[in-house]
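Exercise 7. Given the encoded structure of a 126-residue chain, write a plausible sequence.
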């Protein structure tokens, strides 16, 4: 199977969309994450095909080579959890639950944590 990907827009009736599991996002709003992967899984299942292992690039870096002794305590904690193979989503849940703010004092999201991890990797050359 080719690794080429065609992006399509799908319209879903609201009744169908509302059946997709929601999670709490920033400010307590409901967020339906992974809608595209949910639809993709249904298409592969309907066509009786094996889905590819992954069509998305690896968005999270390997931080195992970072010398954590040079990091501030909050960043050291985040890197330690990340190196324990916690997912970005799990990390965000832990950081929000423990009321650990971002550098600018905001609440962590998957996007801003992923960008933070990528910047750390770039800064430390890993």
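Solution.
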């Amino acid at each position: 199977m080719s690794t080429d990907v065609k992006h399509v827009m799908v319209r879903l009736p609201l009744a169908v969309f509302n059946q997709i599991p929601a999670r709490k996002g920033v400010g307590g709003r409901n967020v339906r994450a992974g809608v595209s992967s949910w639809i993709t899984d249904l298409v592969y299942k309907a066509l009786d095909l094996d889905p590819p292992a992954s069509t998305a690039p690896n968005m999270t870096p390997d931080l195992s080579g970072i010398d954590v002794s040079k990091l501030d305590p909050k960043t050291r904690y985040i890197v330690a959890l990340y190196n324990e193979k916690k997912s970005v989503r799990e990390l965000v849940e832990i950081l929000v639950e423990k009321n650990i703010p971002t550098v600018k004092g905001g609440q962590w999201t998957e996007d801003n944590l992923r960008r933070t991890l990528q910047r750390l990797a770039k800064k430390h050359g890993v």
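Remark. Residues 87 and 108 are 14 Å apart (CA to CA). Students should compare their own answers with the one above.
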